[in-house]
Design brief:
The structure holds two protein chains of two kinds. Chain A is mostly helical. Chain A has helices spanning about 5-25, 25-30, 40-60, 75-100, 110-130, 135-140, 150-170, 185-210. Classes of the chains: A mainly alpha, B mainly alpha. The interface of A and B includes residues 100, 102, 143, 144 and 145 of A. Chain B: Keywords: Endoplasmic reticulum, Glycoprotein, GPI-anchor biosynthesis, Membrane, Transferase, Transmembrane, Transmembrane helix.
Chain lengths: ~220, ~900
């Protein structure tokens, strides 16, 4: 197990966390009355944009899985388009799942959709960056004993922790505290964000602690 | 001693029920009662106190009013009269409240806010307990002392029109009555016309002393369409005109009689935002109480704001107003404004009578009554009163007398308040000792059950019940001794009455023996396990075990649900928890099916072992048996299903079924909004049942019945198929007959029959299926259809391929059953219990079938799932079990969407 790899992983994750923190503070310089709770939708858009951008940049800069075959430009373009389609599909399927979970069908549709977008940003975008639009690889990574590098391992952890965060975020909604953050979908988006951040922090540490035990098939 | 696991479980359940019964007896307070029965209540009224000089006023004071009319409007909320609705729809009443000769109050009804206990509270002044709710359906005659009884013995003529409950409560007390039944909740005009039609005649006649009118229409409207419906306004205007009629008639009559008349307008309970009642929210508890009489004349500019009083105060006030003895069990205090216009001596006399009655009640119910501040105040004010009487008899009309009199008055009022309060809290006091005993028994049984689960999972398990070893018998006797010592100490030092101390020594001793025996058993099983655990730990045959996500979810979900019940809003919104958990379960299931399908042989730990690891008592010796057993069972249906799964068409069904279930859940969820916070939101159920959408409802009902038929009829013999079809047809006919759906060939039938024949028709078919033992199940209604769909999907595509073990499936079934309970529109609020299900197919109220039907109607969801569980676990002996479901048909039929 290469320590440099883990170090790179840690730095990229720190950058992601930094981008989320920036998305909280930077807009208040340009926008009047910006706050996470009151102008939640704006924050959602900005945060999702930041995280996507950082992920893309990191992917281009670090290239964790250097694919051996060089591909043509057209191939790259179709690949990119495919990624976009996958992203949109994941947004819509998340939206459907939220509605199935009891989110209002007609009213607050924009809020629900933006929640779906941010959750896709935390989960689908890293997957797309790392694995590409390749369902086989996704299934392999998210099944037991299927990971083949620390990058995929950390991907698994951040994704699951974002889902769990969003899931836990729904718990305080029925409480009668009448707080502004209990409004749908704020608690869930905050939960997803915290879950993502927690996943980003925990996964390098966990991999570092268990570096002796971890053995990957292809590495 | 060895016990079969079945016997053991039965014993545990029986003991558990006993423990819960003891606990409930302590939890539900015993009502405050006067021990002297009303029959021999001919003791003379308390004479006026006097210090030294003898007062000649020993009889009851004479009545203040000649005629009393009580207009009771069911579910009249305080803002219907005092709020904006009152101003808009009840102009006459509003005028009376604001400017007329009246006193208005907001009377607070104590929960349960259900009609019968409220009538009792109004007329007896006592606080009926929760036990009375059960008897709300079939109210037996009231044995306690009440204003009505007092009036009857005093020779007053009482006329009653309205809710039948009164006639049942006071069977021989009215000289003339016409009871209307609240059987048909959908009718809100006839019930009230039935009352009003007598009004002109009776008011003209005037040969009565007390007239009671109980209007049910408003309550029915609330149940149908909630407090914000436009129908409410019409009803309130109607009530306003009734009130105006009565008031003008009483005023015109007043010139002939020396005494003024009294008109009382009150509600028995309020109405929640959903239109129901029964709980203790502000809307349900606050009712208006308006006393109108020319005796309450006021000067212009005298603004009287409605004061908050207790509903129990009405009884005492009415008794005083009519010159009657105050009912013995009344905990209410006189509404002082009513007597304010009288001379001060009379005022004092009334207050004295009231305090004497309350202090008597206190003496009988509280052992240490002398220490009660209310009682001390009473003694003091009685002394002051005596002094005042002496002064009064000596010299009349002086400033001193008046000042002293008002001081005594204040003293009395304070005493009344404290007395009334301490009596009311007496009712709300828990019997801690009984509750503790019940809890201890229940906890012991629970530990015993938990400890013996690993043993009991063994199919032919026999449980060792250690009773005879000397160490434990010593422990047993010691514990008995300690417990009886405790019992004696608690019972001799108890301040308030205690049920458990009131039991005979034999019964209390029996419970103590039981408790100590259970304790010994728990201890011995625990030691056995520890010893056995040490032995088996040496033997490291721990099969590689990893908990699947599903196991984790089920464990966390169950634990989380238990924890969430600590927060009151999670209790109110418990349905949200269940929906959330069920959804997550579905997603987890779908994830598992996907994994199984796409990565065929990835994760195949012998799943039969999971449960044993979950409960992991480190008992390797026991494990062999169940594990092998489960494995065998597993193999049984692995071979066919595994090959089945991967066939193309079926594979897609497997993949789609969790999503279908999720979609169904979402649909059902929007069918009924329950809980507290979002209960007022419009839901599909209301939309469907509103009269504009009858066609949609009819189509939906027909489709769902068809779906039921299609899904059920497979594998039935032709006879049972026919019976099933006829039964389902009968269901539809029944609903058409009660007017909730319509026949295609008779679109505008106005006559709403009771639907009794149709319902019986259904019952006959159900019974027929039951008796002939024919093949399969039969159930109905949208929910049932959906349930059917789901269970079919589930069994066919999820449980079979996934090969879960019994414990997991049990938990899943339980979750789904709970979710269905809430899908039906139930909640933890007693008001959501739909009593009308108890009347399907019955002409009149028959207690046992009605209670059974109501219970089935309420718990149809959990019962269906439980029976499906049994069916699933014993697939071989399937046919007899399904017939269990059939009784639920009848009332799930009627359950309004």
């Amino acid at each position: 197990m290469k320590d440099t790899d883990i170090k790179r992983l840690l730095y990229t994750h720190l950058l992601c966390i930094f981008s989320i923190i920036l998305s909280v503070f930077i807009p208040s310089l340009f926008l009047e009355n910006f706050s996470i709770l009151e102008t939640h939708l704006t924050w959602l858009c900005i945060c999702s944009g930041f995280v996507t951008a950082v992920n893309l940049v990191l992917y281009l800069a670090v290239k964790p899985n250097t694919s051996s075959k060089r591909s043509s430009l057209s191939h790259k373009v179709t690949r990119f388009l495919k990624c976009c389609v996958y992203f949109l599909m994941s947004c819509f399927s998340f939206h459907v799942i939220f509605v199935l979970y009891g989110a209002p069908l007609i009213e607050l549709a924009l809020e629900t959709f933006l929640f779906a977008v941010i959750l896709s940003t935390f989960t689908t975008v890293p997957c797309l960056c790392l694995l590409g639009p390749n369902l086989k690889a996704w299934l392999r990574v998210f099944s037991r004993n299927g990971v083949s590098s620390i990058w995929e391992n950390s991907l698994q952890m951040t994704t699951i922790s974002s889902f769990v965060g969003a899931w836990l975020g729904a718990l305080p909604i029925p409480l009668d505290w009448e707080r502004p953050w209990q409004v749908w979908p704020i608690s869930c988006t905050l939960g997803a964000t915290f879950g993502y951040v927690a996943g980003l922090v925990i996964s390098p540490l966990w991999i570092y602690w268990n570096r002796k035990q971890l053995t990957y098939k292809n590495n | 001693m060895r016990l079969g696991s079945g016997t053991f479980a039965t014993c545990c359940v029986a003991i558990e029920v006993l423990g819960i019964a003891v606990f409930l007896r302590g939890f539900f307070p015993a009502p405050v009662r006067s021990s002297a029965r009303a029959e021999h209540g001919a003791e003379p009224p308390a004479p006026e106190p006097s210090a030294g000089a003898s007062s000649n006023w020993t009889t009851l004071p004479s009545p203040l009013f000649s005629k009393v009319v009580i207009v009771l409007i069911d579910a009249l909320r305080d803002d219907f009269v005092f709020g904006s609705k009152g101003v808009k729809f009840m102009p006459y009443t509003t005028y009376l409240v604001e400017k007329g000769a009246s006193h208005s109050f907001v009377a607070e009804a104590k929960p349960p806010t259900v009609t019968m206990p409220r009538i009792k509270a109004l007329m007896t002044g006592s606080l009926p307990g929760f036990v009375d709710v059960v008897r709300n359906l079939n109210s037996p005659a009231l044995l306690e002392d009440s204003v009505i009884r007092q009036a009857k013995t005093a020779g007053k003529r009482i006329i009653f029109y309205g809710d039948e409950t009164w006639v049942k409560l006071f069977p021989k007390h009215f000289v003339e009555y016409d009871g209307t039944t609240s059987f048909f909740v959908s009718d809100y005009t006839e019930v009230d016309n039935n009352v009003t039609r007598h009004l002109d005649k009776v008011l003209k006649r005037g040969d009565w002393d007390m007239l009671i009118l109980h209007y049910l229409g408003l309550d029915h409207i609330g149940h149908i369409s909630g407090p914000n419906s436009p129908l409410i306004g019409h009803k309130l205007s109607e009530m306003d005109s009734v009130l105006m009629k009565i008031h003008t008639s009483l005023q015109s009559k007043e010139r002939e009689t020396p005494l003024p008349n009294l008109l009382v307008l009150c509600g028995d309970h309020g109405m929640s935002e959903t239109g129901s009642h029964g709980a203790s929210s502000m809307e349900e508890v606050n009712t208006p109480l308006i006393l109108i009489s020319s005796a309450f004349e006021r000067k212009p500019g005298d603004i009287r704001h409605p004061k908050h009083v207790q509903q129990t105060d009405v009884a005492a006030t009415l008794a005083i107003a009519l010159g009657l003895r105050i009912p013995k069990d009344s905990v209410g205090s006189l509404l002082f404004p009513v007597v304010e216009g009288r001379p001060i001596r009379e005022q004092l006399r009334f207050l004295h009578l009231n305090t004497v009655q309350l202090s008597k009640l206190l003496q009988e119910n509280v052992p240490s009554y002398e220490k009660d501040p209310g009682f001390e105040q009473f003694k003091m004010s009685e002394r002051l009163h005596g002094n005042w009487i002496r002064l009064y008899l000596e010299e009349k009309h002086s400033e001193v007398l008046f000042n002293l009199g008002s001081k005594v008055l204040r003293q009395y009022l304070a005493a009344l308040k404290t007395l009334s309060l301490s009596l009311s809290t007496q009712v709300a006091q828990y019997d801690m000792y009984s509750m503790m005993v019940g809890t201890v028994v229940v906890l012991e049984v629970l530990t015993l059950l938990l400890l013996s689960v690993p043993q009991a999972l063994h199919r032919k398990a026999e449980l060792e019940v250690p009773l005879s070893s000397p160490g434990f018998s010593l422990l047993f006797y010691l514990v008995i001794l300690v417990l009886s010592a405790l019992h004696v100490i608690v019972c001799t030092s108890a301040e308030s009455s205690c049920y458990f101390c009131g039991l005979s020594w034999l019964a209390a001793g029996g419970v103590m023996v039981l408790a100590s025996a259970l304790l010994c058993m728990v201890v011995s099983v625990l030691t056995n396990m520890l010893v056995g655990g040490n032995a088996s730990r040496k033997n490291p045959v721990h099969p590689s075990s990893r908990w699947s996500e599903l196991d984790l979810l089920i464990l966390l979900g169950t634990a989380g649900h238990v924890l969430s019940l600590g927060a009151s809003s999670f209790v109110e919104e418990e349905h949200q928890t269940w929906y959330f958990l069920v959804n997550t379960l579905c997603l987890a299931l779908s994830q598992e099916t996907y994994r199984n399908c796409f990565l065929g042989d990835d994760s195949e730990p012998p799943c039969g072992l999971r449960v044993e690891q979950g409960l992991d008592g480190a008992t390797a010796a026991w494990q062999d048996g169940p594990a092998c057993d489960a494995l065998e069972r597993d193999k049984g249906h692995r071979s066919p299903s595994a090959s089945q799964v991967l066939r193309g068409h079926e594979k897609w069904m497997v993949l789609a079924s969790p999503w279908l279930i999720l979609a169904c859940c979402r649909l059902l969820r929007s069918l009924n909004q329950t809980g507290v916070q979002w209960a007022h939101r419009p839901d599909l159920g209301h939309w469907l049942t509103s009269s504009d959408h009858k066609a949609e409802l009819s189509v939906l009902a027909a489709i769902s019945l068809l779906v039921v038929f299609v899904l059920v009829q497979r594998g039935c013999s032709s006879v049972s198929k026919a019976a099933l079809a006829l039964g389902l047809l009968g269901v539809y006919c029944y609903r058409a007959a009660i007017g909730s759906v319509r026949f295609p060939w008779r679109p505008d039938s106005k006559d709403i029959s009771k639907g009794i024949i149709e319902a019986r028709f259904v019952y006959v078919f159900v019974l027929g299926i039951l008796f002939t033992g024919t093949k399969d199940l039969l159930k109905s209604q949208v929910i049932a259809a959906d349930f059917q769909l789901k269970t079919t999907l589930m069994t066919k595509f999820i449980w079979k391929p996934l090969r879960h073990d019994a414990a997991e499936i049990t938990v899943m079934h339980y979750w789904f059953g709970q979710a269905f309970f809430y899908f039906q529109g139930n909640s933890n609020n007693i008001a959501t219990v739909d009593i009308s299900a108890g009347f399907v197919g019955l002409d009149t109220y028959v207690e046992i079938p009605a209670v059974l039907l109501t219970a089935f109607g309420t718990y149809a969801g959990p019962v269906l799932w439980a029976s499906h569980l049994v069916h699933f676990l014993s697939s071989e002996t399937r046919r007899c079990l399904w017939t269990l479901d059939t009784p639920t048909l009848g009332q799930s039929v009627d359950r309004p969407l």
